[in-house]
Write the structure tokens for this entry.
Amino acid sequence: MIAVEHLTKLFGLVRAVDDLSFSVRPGAVTGFLGPNGAGKTTTLRVLLGLVVPTAGTATINQRPYREIRLPSRAVGAALEAASFHPGRTGLDHLRVYAPQIGVSDRRCQELLDLVGLSDAAKRRVGGYSMGMRQRLGLAAALLGDPAVLVLDEPANGLDPGGVLWLRELLRRFAAEGRTVLVSSHVLGEVQQTVDDVVIIARGRLVHASSLADLALLARRHVEVVSPDHDALHRLLDEHRWTYADKQGLVVVDDVTSAQVGAAAFAAGLELHGLTQRQLQLEDVFFRLTSDSSS
Amino acid sequence: MIAALQAEWRKWRTTRLWWILLIVMAVYMAFIGAVLAVSSTFGSAISPGMPTLVGEAVAVSVYASGNGLGYVFPLLVGALAMTSEFRYQTITPSLLVQPNRWTFLATSSSSPSP
């Protein structure tokens, strides 16, 4: 269980995080979303004890990260994909952190097998691709078999196959009752992975709910084209649908194309266009994160 | 604390820098030793005012130069170990496994001693 309460972080005059509160439940994958510069990484860095907050708290199982004994066994974290010494091999990268986490060299090899890097274990990280670095970062996060997983943009640089693999891995972790927090700046990237979403913009919370509740914000509408404009208006008024004229077509809110089509057919109205439109989740995300400027 | 020292040792041993530096140190010290030996025995032949050492005195001054000049290498090791943590941002995972800043500093600064 991760809890962030009234968290504020100032960098000089810049409010990177502004009175942010949210919680992350175990047994689910939570997406931590926001555009670039929204304060996601700062929040995660505070959570992991790398940055001291100006005000507020961020705790994992009611304790700040720095007060957890053997923190890497409780919390696995992968921040940026660049934190590797290019001259070290993949296996050695894990071996370097193994003593302090308290795991054996064999466990390091097991983790490399798990993330699909067995063949590259003895190769220097400098020659790794972005996707391979992401996998190595994930392996390092999982070394201590933690119950809480914090990942910053883990899908960055992964190919579609890698994204699918990551999705299944995270789903499995959540199913085991672990807490998984994944940040991303694109909703579409994590849409099929997450159960809950926490959306921030300009350091403030703009939305926190389950993904299903977010989907409710996605309004559907139908675009209708008819040569007989007045008859179409009369028909829509009859059904008390809300609509608006837009460049030769009429946009009807909150109906399905089947409803409008059936009504037009019953009234004997000629239609030249009937298109169902669904506001994509990505559009909702965009609207939420740009709204907060006002 | 012991685990942290072991980690520091591994950090050092898993990069190429350690044996490059070892070779540089061996070559450099051999060179300094040779130059000292030559100049202290044949120095007077080149510039007449220079004192000439013989026997045990030569051996002592040549072999003691390792202590006098070799100390820069552990210093280099320490400086390079710490700066590479910043350069490659490996300080992030280092602090994640050891959130206590004082322990981290203490183990990092004692790492060049072996």
Remarks:
- Chain B has a mean pLDDT of 79.
- The helical segments of chain B are 2-13, 17-46, 56-70, 72-87, 91-97, 101-110.
